[in-house]
């Protein structure tokens, strides 16, 4: 198999560096707890594997060519992002009320103090659902990735191998981002900073979700 690996790697790196829903989920999870951030990263890449396998099997082509299926996935993804955003905004408002009433809780952030298994499950599910319900990821494997394949070989096999390389690169990138984002925990120990962080990330989730829902 002969492919343009340099061009492919360039496109993949740009796709990861440009912030999107996955970026926000991983950073927010890592700021709560590094292990939750790594779980979110693994969840996001597992969702990517679903798109990769679907594209290799030809299922993504069927979904993207069916407006009803495509719109259904898009709206589900948008609804999930809005759900995450509303949860964050409500958490911020709850913290503000506790401060005003003198019942402020300065212990760990939501999920941070729970069992390790619960943190992993929460982070993984958020990363997975955010990615697997993103139809743009399916379009990437159908429209962008085949441009770097060798026309003489099996397209499905090449999509699988290039997609696997994409997933591995993503894991390395997300884990590096987790190390950086985890440093936010020191700042988030301050209740007012945490409240503003919850509000900001919450409204960002809502804005992205609305944008996805209204996209043509």
UniProtKB/TrEMBL annotation:
Entry keyword annotation includes Aminoacyl-tRNA synthetase: no
Annotated InterPro entries: LeuE-type
Membrane topology per record: Multi-pass membrane protein
Compartment list: Cell membrane
Keywords associated with the record: Cell membrane, Membrane, Transmembrane, Transmembrane helix
Pfam families named in the record: LysE
Membrane-spanning intervals of the chain: 6-27, 39-62, 68-90, 128-148, 160-184
Protein origin, superkingdom: Bacteria
PANTHER family according to UniProt: ARGININE EXPORTER PROTEIN ARGO, ARGININE EXPORTER PROTEIN ARGO-RELATED
Record protein name field: LysE family translocator
Lineage: Bacteria, Bacillati, Actinomycetota, Actinomycetes, Kitasatosporales
């Amino acid at each position: 198999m002969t492919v343009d690996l340099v061009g492919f790697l360039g496109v993949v790196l740009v796709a990861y560096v440009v912030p999107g829903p996955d970026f926000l989920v991983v950073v927010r999870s890592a700021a709560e707890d590094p292990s939750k951030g790594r779980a979110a990263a693994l969840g996001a890449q597992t969702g990517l594997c679903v798109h990769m396998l679907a594209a290799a099997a030809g299922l993504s082509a069927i979904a993207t060519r069916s407006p009803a299926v495509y719109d259904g996935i898009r709206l589900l993804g948008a609804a999930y992002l809005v759900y995450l955003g509303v949860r964050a905004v409500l958490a911020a408002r709850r913290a503000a009320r506790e401060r005003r009433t003198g019942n402020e809780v300065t212990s760990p952030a939501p999920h941070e103090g729970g069992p390790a298994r619960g943190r992993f499950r929460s982070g993984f599910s958020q990363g997975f659902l955010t990615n697997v319900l993103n139809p743009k990821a399916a379009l990437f494997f159908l429209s962008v990735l085949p441009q770097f394949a060798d026309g003489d070989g099996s397209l499905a096999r090449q999509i699988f191998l290039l997609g696997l390389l994409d997933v591995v690169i993503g894991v390395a990138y997300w884990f590096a981002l987790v190390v950086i984002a985890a440093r936010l925990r020191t700042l988030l120990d301050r209740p007012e900073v945490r409240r503003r962080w919850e509000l900001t990330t919450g409204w960002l989730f809502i804005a992205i979700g609305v944008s996805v829902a209204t996209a043509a």
